[in-house]
């Protein structure tokens, strides 16, 4: 082929490609060069024990997780924060006050210091009917304490709370899960052994790059009716398996829209029977609850 003609052809094709109308965003479109997000089982409603069976026992403690497992929860939920020495503490708040009644921040403390504070005394004071003397000895667990206790006998739904950019929390969590054989496991109750969740898109994208086979849930904190634009959904579909939203923001039209994109919807945090039934009717795929026994009882019945 004549060299000048070859150059003309290449330039012509380049110009045609550049001028072509962009494809409309739709559930079917997506990046071809990245791993697809992991799939969650279809038509499988998930009972997620929020901080364990935390309506009945001190949140994020081993007794709360043991009870959640006994109640038949599909997942035990853990919030993770990094301590000053880069270890993974299972706790929701950075401030210790609400859980321990003491001052201080998780991010300012060494894990060994954190383990000297009672995680059950405040619970006992606030819940005399549920209090147990033994709870006073409970401490804030480290991720590895929970993994050592349960191994592959439960499924984990883990939230990365740390907002520290480049803290390496993503790699640390994955390393711990690998160390205890969690990621290689089949999972209990016919669902994946671990789901990771975060409000940080960046954190989840990072995990998707490292371990695309782990299902990821992008959390949102909608104050009113939930909504996401087609371009937000396009991006979300490139790394996440679903979304987690406040229960009050859920509505049927939104859930239908999300499902059209092949994404699941989990709602937090729902403890009352009437609300649980309403959300199940609406079509949500999972509920975070402090009362996994209540959700299990409802989904065990066929009259809703
Ligand atoms: O992780 C979902 C839900 O737990 C988010 O709420 O504040 O309880 O972590 P929060
Ligand atoms: Ca959480």
From TrEMBL:
This is Glycerophosphoryl diester phosphodiesterase. GO terms for molecular function: phosphoric diester hydrolase activity. InterPro entries: GP_PDE_dom (IPR030395), PLC-like_Pdiesterase_TIM-brl (IPR017946). SUPFAM superfamilies: PLC-like phosphodiesterases. GO terms for biological process: lipid metabolic process. It holds the Pfam family GDPD. Transmembrane segments: none annotated.
